Amino acid sequence: MTDCLELLHEAPARALDVPPLLFIHGAYVGAWCWQEHFLPWFAAQGFDAWALSLRGHGGSRTSRPRDTLSIDDYVDDVLRAQERLPAEPILIGHSMGGFVAQKALERHPFPAIVLLCSVPPTGLAGSLLHMLLSSPLALLEMNLFMTGKRKPHRSLVEALFHHQPPEPDLARYLAASGPESLRAIWDMMGFSRIDRTRQHPAPVHVFGAEHDKIIPPDQVETTARFYGTTARILPEFGHTLMLEPGWERAAQAIAQVLQPAAQAA
To answer: What domain of life is recorded for the organism (predicted)?
Structure first.
C-alpha cells in the first residue's frame, strides 16, 4: 500500500487576500472533525480552507504499522500537504495537531500558526498529571481507546466536551474516531520537544478552553509564555471545541486574529 494523504477543501466564493488555512487535527480523529463546521464556516468568511488527515487517520492510508508512526512522520505529512496548496498556509493545529504544527515550524517557514488547546512545547507530562489527579477514569478510558480495546465511556466524553453534542452527532464522531499511534504519544511525552531556536520566525496565536480537562488553561498559559504571547482562553468550551455546541464563537475568535494577516496581504 502506498501512503496517500487525504486533504479536504472548502473554497471561498469571494476569497480574501490572505494565505490559505491548513487545519491539523488531534489524536484519534481525522480531517472530518474540521469538515463538520469549521471548513465551510471559514470558507464563507473568505478563507481558502483546507484540512489534512495525518497518515493512518481519516482517509489517509499508510503502509506502516500504526504504532510506529512518529510526530516527525506527521510533520512530513504537513510538509507534503502544504506543497499541494496554492500558497504557503497558516497552520491551525488542535491538541496533538498543535504540537505537530510547532514541530513543522522547525522545518519550514509558515506565515503564522494558530494553536488550539495544543499540547505544550514541553510535552504531555503536565496534562497527564492533571488528568490523573482530576479525571483518572477519563484517563483510563482514553488509554483503552488509544489501543483500540474499546470505545470510550461517559467519563472520556465528559473530558472531551463541556457541552455535549446531540447524541446522534456524538455517535457519528465516536464511530469516525480510532486509535492513536503509541510512538506519537511517547514522542509528546518528552522524546520530541519543541526547539525554539530551530523554529522559523512566525506569529504564534495561542487559544485554550476554559473547561478543558485534557489541556487545561494553565498548560495553555505555559505555551503562550514559551512564545512570548498572551493566551486567549475561550469561555464555556471544553477540549473538542470545533465540534461542541457554540463552536461559532471559537471560529469567530480565530478569524479575528487572522484579520491583520488579511489586511497586510
So the answer is: Bacteria
